[in-house]
Amino acid sequence: xxxxxxxxxxxxxxxxxxxxxxxxxxxxxxxxxxxxxxxxxxxxxxxxxxxxxxxxxxxxxxxxxxxxxxxxxxxxxxxxxxxxxxxxxxxxxxxxxxxxxxxxxxxxxxxxxxxxxxxx
Length: 120
Prior knowledge:
The chain has one helix and eleven strands, in the order ββββββββαβββ. It is mainly beta. Strands 2-3-4-9 form a four-stranded antiparallel beta sheet, with no helix packed on it. Strands 5-6-7-8 form a four-stranded antiparallel beta sheet, with no helix packed on it. It has a three-stranded antiparallel beta sheet with strand order 1-11-10, with no helix packed on it. The longest helix has 10 residues, at about 90-100.
């Protein structure tokens, strides 16, 4: 059984991300978004676990990321689901049966000079 070693990979320039901004990147076969909130950098899978939308095209309010497709909301601090969808009633219940809520994958970040690195 092989154990993959994680390593920090440069993904973005810190100076390229304004406070409250996020951007998508393809890194080592992963679709990742990097966000800057109050001079902290967060990284997460950019593919929504609900319906596969590109989360980097969503909106960001503080550390809360909203999916552009069905308004699923996630916290970039820990990946937890804030809201699985903006659907209501029977549509929401059926959706949760077929695609139960799942958090987004969060990656550890660090800044080295002007480089934002993500642990992959």
